[in-house]
Amino acid sequence: MSAAAAPDALAEPSERVGGGWTATLSLANGAIWVGWYGPLQILLALQAAELAPPGMPKESVLAWVTGMGAVVSMVCNPLFGALSDRTTSRFGRRTPWIVAGVLGGAAALVLLAGAGTVPVMAVGWCLVQLTLNAAFAAITAAVPDRVPHRQRGSVGGWLGAAQILGVVAGTGLATLAGGVTWGYVACAAFAVLGTLPYVLMHRDPVLPAERRPALTGRAFLAGFWISPRRHPDLGWAWLTRFLINLGNSLALLYLLYYLRDVLHRPDPGGGVLLLTAVNGVTLLGTVVVGGIWSDRIGRRQPFVRWAGVIMTGATVLLAVWQTWAGALCAAALLGVGFGVFTSVDFALMTDVLPAAAHRGKDLGVINIANSLPQVAAPALAAPIVQHLGGYRVLYGVAAAVGLMGALLVRRIRGVE
Predict the structure, then answer these.
(1) Rg of the chain over CA atoms, in angstroms?
(2) What pTM did the predictor assign?
């Protein structure tokens, strides 16, 4: 069947999307990041310090809880992406999963607010990851569903801007809401309210029931393996994203503890908020510009490569210049690099997708490169900090991993 005759849900988009669509999708994306990063930046670390049993370091509690949540995220993102690919609801393929995921995520955040033990904390965070990943998988897949290739850098830039604003807003809500419980409640409310405009204002393309492929359990599971031999560009792009995100995760995981235990900041939570704000300002200065510039010149690789190099330099600063001034400079540089990386790497990923019929599933597999570092980072970071040299070694390892990812982008052949 030709692309011209294909149903809207499976057609390759050719018409540019409007500013209203981009703005409301970006707001929904940012709202989900509020639900993730209020806990990740502040609330989970505070709970870990409060609930850690005698003899168990708070770093280990945080590592176990975030690692378990990341495993759930790694599994659920491609799963819900695949399910949304096959959804034939009259509300479209993606919208039902956005609604169900955000409402479930809000409920899970409220549950997490009342956690009184480490096991309940872990279960609550895993539920947050499960539900919000359902919504995130659907939101991510809406871009290749609706946005033509020539516009994906700029749309990716606005999504990236919303992402960092979500991180800043989540950190701010967690810090200023008046305690751990109200921090979780505030993040839950924001996640719900932020998704409403997109859900209410925009119609999702409907997949006709007769176009949904027959399903067997074996075929469904086999679909999650995307052969890097058959699709080498996708394989190298995935590895690049994984390594750069791993370096970033290693740098940020123990930021609250770094400020408290190494720099001896009197208000480490406030310090994290200020560093996040500095990072957000510089990121906002590059994320949209980088995406638009990439669209205009029709190239992705140089932007991703140099973004990774800049992020590596920022992480080196944390290793060798362990002062508050050094942390501020590192936060600013990380924002510059991660802003360009966020928008242009997203466009690069959508450019190497194999087929329109399973965009959600394929993007979910790609998004494992975001969630797997959350599993690997605690496993690497905890022993490094506790036994293998402390924070200098941790940030040195983070720099080396990120630089490797930046250099490997050269192996992608089909996208310049």
Answers:
(1) 20
(2) 0.76
